[in-house]
Amino acid sequence: MSGVGFFRGTSADQDTRFSNKKAKLLKSHKFAPELDHLVNMGKVNMDVIKPWITRRVTELLGFEDEVLINFIHGLLDVKDVNGKEVQIQITGFMEKNTGKFMKELWTLLLSAQKNASGVPRQFLDAKAEEIRKKKVEDDRITSKIQRKKDKEGRENMQEGLKKLDGGFDMNHTDTSSNLTLKPSDTGDFLRDGKETDMRNGDGARNRTPHSPAVLTLPHR
């Protein structure tokens, strides 16, 4: 009975067979220094970490392995996570890419638990840089549009001035031609587009047009 009770109350951590195996695995693997620290997952915003895990695993394997991705999510779904144990668990799936992936993942998790938002500083900096670049691009486009408008405005103004100059020259020429004295068909003169009748002068009032000259002889 004592033997039955022993096995009933023994956990994997208490069983020396499992503890020895874990110790051997820990010694046989190389771990990044970041994995020496536990991560409090209660302080990590997994909504921003999960998309990164999916993208990075897909990049390293060359295809999207949903089974492995969900498995990693499950390993992180505890309060305090030991990175070394996680690496041992996923080595069979990621093989040579395991160390690189775990170093990058743990760097993000350690940073995330230090921020009140639970978001890694790297993500915040990347977002800030994205916003800055977008603003620079928006300013460039706005400046380009404004320069185009200014150029069109100058061209329209120059075109308008040319039209005004052309109209002024034409009017000036017409006015000048109207000031020229031109003989009319009746022998009078035109000035400023108006006919000036010489018969309306003082001399014209003293003689009758078309009257023959009369020679008056003295009476004897």
Automatic annotation (TrEMBL):
It comes from Crotalaria pallida. InterPro entries: PWI_dom, PWI_dom_sf, Ser/Arg_repetitive_matrix. Gene3D superfamilies: PWI domain (1.20.1390.10). The keyword S-adenosyl-L-methionine does not apply. It holds the Pfam family PWI. SUPFAM superfamilies: PWI domain. Residues 28-126 form the PWI domain. Residues 173-183 have a biased composition (Polar residues). GO terms for molecular function: RNA binding. GO terms for cellular component: spliceosomal complex. Residues 188-205 have a biased composition (Basic and acidic residues). It comes from the Eukaryota. This is PWI domain-containing protein.
